Amino acid sequence: MSKSTVRAAAVQIAPDLTSRSGTLTRVLNAIAEAAGKGADLIVFPETFVPWYPYFSFVLPPMQQGAEHLRLYEEAMVVPSPESEAVAKAAKTHGVVIVLGINERDHGSLYNTQLIYDADGTLALKRRKITPTYHERMIWGQGDGAGLKVVDTKVGRLGALACWEHYNPLARYALMTQHEEIHAAQFPGSLVGPIFGEQIEVTMRHHALESACFVVNATGWLTEEQIASIHDDPKLQKGLRDGCMTCIISPEGRHVVPPLTEGEGILIADLDMRLVTKRKRMMDSVGHYARPELLHLVHDARPAQAVRRIEEPTPQPVLTPELEAEDV
Question: Per the database record, which ranges form the CN hydrolase domain (predicted)?
Fold first, then answer.
């Protein structure tokens, strides 16, 4: 464990729904602000750059085309000048950054989480393994290679997005790699108050079960932004509330009060000794496990759309005369 105390920041701000560059500017400003407050780790909401596809929640498929194509145009490519700008910010401020993006890979979009170490290296690029309900019209699927915990300046760090936390085996795959801090991301401003309540339950449960800290960031939409997504007041209700930016200890407690509305940056100091304190009582992948009864099979190979089998290169046929010449 690299540090006995880690100062974590969970960012709850609104994106710029008009441009990738506008949202990226907000990201870089928030990094500078959190780093100025001493943060070692900064977590942003799900697919924050350029924005979460809120339109997919309130528009029927036949009406999504224009907004979906606009998301293609504004989505991030990795690597790109935008991803390099985030890497530079991580290195400049000496902070670990977890950023959610819409990643464009040629003709597909993915819900992608980027983890930058404090030296600016991209420690992990992973894709959400199963988009949820309406999101399946928007994103492709990730693979088991992204279910990975990485060593960073702040310790062993894992990440999942939104309802991946409802997949106990996905969470267990990270737990078996002994994550010390778990970065979680949700869209925020979605579904209504019940969503925030469900997020809180899920984050506290994972912290307890994994015996790790959880740093969760949800997004925020202004009333003007909500109106720009849909003009029907009834449907606008589905674009409010659902925020639960929080930082949870391995004992399942809020380290600081959560942020459930408005913009802000939650800051908390994580006493990393609590990880061992909790695991002494209950290590779900160690002394509390029963692998001879129950165990996980994790296919960590990257998914491949094609496996090429090339023609073998013809080898010259050696005649007795050629063999004699070689000698």
Answer: 6-272
**Class of domain 5-326 as given by CATH:** alpha beta
- DSSP H helical ranges for 41-185: 55-58, 65-74, 81-93, 168-175
74, 82, 125, 162: the catalytic one is: 162
Is residue 46 part of the annotated active site? The answer reads: yes
How many Cβ atoms sit within 10 Å of the Cβ of residue 201?
10
Encoded tokens for 216: 């969760």
**pLDDT for residue 307:** 87
Our answer to whether residue 263 is catalytic in this structure is: no
DSSP letter, residue 4: S
Whether 212 is a known active-site residue: answer no
Tokens of 76: 């991030």
Instruction: With H, G, I as helix, E, B as strand and everything else as coil, classify residue 98.
Output: strand
Q: Which of 200-204, 312-316, 319-323 has the lowest mean pLDDT?
A: 319-323
Domain extent listing, the chain: 5-326
Q: Are 278 and 250 in contact (CB under 8 A)?
A: yes
* CA quadruple 280, 281, 284, 289: dihedral sign: positive
In which order are the strands placed within the sheet that holds 181-186? Answer: 150-152, 155-161, 181-186, 213-218, 246-248
Residue whose pair of structure tokens reads 């994994």 in the numeric block: 210
Beta strand pairing call for 181-186 and 213-218: parallel
pLDDT tens digit string along 153-208?
Answer: 999 999 999 999 999 999 999 999 999 999 999 999 999 999 999 999 999 999 99
The average pLDDT across 242-269 equals: 98
If you search the block for the tokens 């790109």, which residue do you land on?
80
Q: Where are the alpha helices (DSSP H) in 138-192?
A: 168-175
In 3D, which of 9, 48, 2 has the Cα closest to residue 25? 48
